[in-house]
Amino acid sequence: LDSVLKIYRESLSNRGSDDFLQARDNAATADGIRGQGKTNPLGYLADGLVKSLGMIEKTAVDVLNKFLAVVEQSVSNFPEFEVPLRLFRYGIRYLISGEESEFVELIKTERRILRQVFDLPEET
């Protein structure tokens, strides 16, 4: 868990105005996650979770699966992590297979987010 939090912190320091932040902020507003102008800190952690995918080095499949299991166990009970955890799962699947076809079940916006995270070319 400490390593996951370290990756979150690194990702948070690199926050930008990418599609994921905008989508997350729009969802947060629509769902009432934010209250009276205060930002939910879990939203930033969720953003960091997705961005952390780009920092994970290619490693053994069992290590990636264990990492995914730890993350799922840690955040699955938080509604703020519903979409980011979904993206994280597909990102891990992509890291394991190396195939962009892993993204086929995702909606266009989700695919775009993961393409940005992995520095993949835009869909044509």
User: Based on DSSP secondary structure assignment, what is the total number of beta strands?
Assistant: 0
* SSE string: HHHHHH
Q: State the end-to-end distance.
A: 38 Å
Helix content: 55-70%
Shape: globular
Low-pLDDT residue spans:
22-37
Largest sheet: none
SSE-based structural type = mainly alpha
Q: If you average the pLDDT, what whole number results?
A: 77
Strand content: under 5%
Question: Tally the helices: what do you get?
Answer: 6
Cα-based radius of gyration, to the nearest Å: 14 Å
Architecture blueprint of SSEs:
Blueprint: H1 2-13, H2 19-31, H3 41-52, H4 61-75, H5 82-97, H6 108-117
Helix pairs in contact: 1-3, 3-5, 4-5
Tell me about this structure:
The structure is a single chain. This protein is mainly α and 124 residues long. 63% of the residues lie in helices and 0% in strands. The protein contains six helices and no strands. It has helices at 2-13, 19-31, 41-52, 61-75, 82-97, 108-117. The termini are far apart. The model is unreliable at 22-37 (pLDDT under 50).
